[in-house]
Amino acid sequence: MIAPSFEELFNKFIRDEISAEEIQLFVRMVSNSHYEEELHRLLRRTYSDPSFAVGGDFDPEEVFEEMMQKVKAREMPIVGKAPHAGGSVRLLRRYSIAVAVLLVFIAGASYFFYFRNGDTAMAEVIVSEKGQRKSFQLPDGSSVVLNGGSRLIIPAGYNQADRRLTLEGEGYFNVARDSSRPFTVHTRYMDVKALGTVFNVSAYPDEGAAVASLLKGKILVSVQKDAIKSSYVLHPMEKIVIEKAVSKQTQGAGNDLMGYHALKLDSLHVNALTEQLPETAWTENKLFFDAATLSDAAGKIEKWYDVTVQIDNDAIKDLHFTGTYQNEKLLEVLEALCLANSSIHYRLENNNRLVIFY
Q1: pTM, rounded to two decimals
Q2: What phi and psi, each to the nearest 5 degrees, are found at residue 261?
Q3: DSSP 271-288
Q4: Mean of the pLDDT values across residues 212-239?
Q5: What's the rounded Cα separation, in Å, for the pair 333 and 28?
């Protein structure tokens, strides 16, 4: 039996006619960078077809997040029978589009597609997977470095009337000066606006605080609490730390900001022992702990080495560690942590799972 081609599998997938066996093959092929260029071509062809347009209530980011959760739980829906008419067709197309977008991410591509009122506009998404750091230049000449586990959405209209980006994770921005086109980085927790400056934004969803740090120039940071927005001007070597609210009712939607629990303005300090600025050490490919708790250090290790970390004993979560590591392997970092505090031990399990215990 001759195996189906990549395009045949793609067409079956989009038409919701793919079998369980075929989708396993399709996912394996998409995960192979050899098919990346063909995948881009087929996606562009498919989404220029108005028959795949969906209604105005389609929220691609919401669907994408939903699909990500399903894939992480190994529950990707498999469609093996013909769709019903009416609303079911729309729903299946909705998921086909969402999974197709997801497959682009699996392949390491940098495209994301938005659908609204039957029109198709394409926004670029740059993804830096866990264990990576990615540097690139924006169309206006600004440069960006993305830390591991981060993504940056660049809308189709970027650098026209303005320069607005959406960040999830951590990014370092060296902004080209252009007073006629404000440069704004939007996150779920704050908006950071600049004209020409160098700053770092850390806004990971799984961390307890979001931080904007300014190295050069001037930035305006906007936050929201109890439906009231406030703005703060930062000068060089200053930072703003936003402790996130835990209530789901404070979460923002779309371009709205999440509420916060507490806010602190502080100065940036170079670590005396390492002569390193903790907030931006990662841009020099340095994993840096600045009196970090073991819990915080574990979060950084997860993103730096693409592993899952579990701390088995709450008593050791608040132990503090300071150190800088460049090009060290994971085991070397773990041995250094154990040397710094002999009360902790670790074991590596299958599937990149690291357990730290007392």
Answers
A1: 0.67
A2: -85, -45
A3: BTTTTB-GGGGGGGT-EE
A4: 92
A5: 33
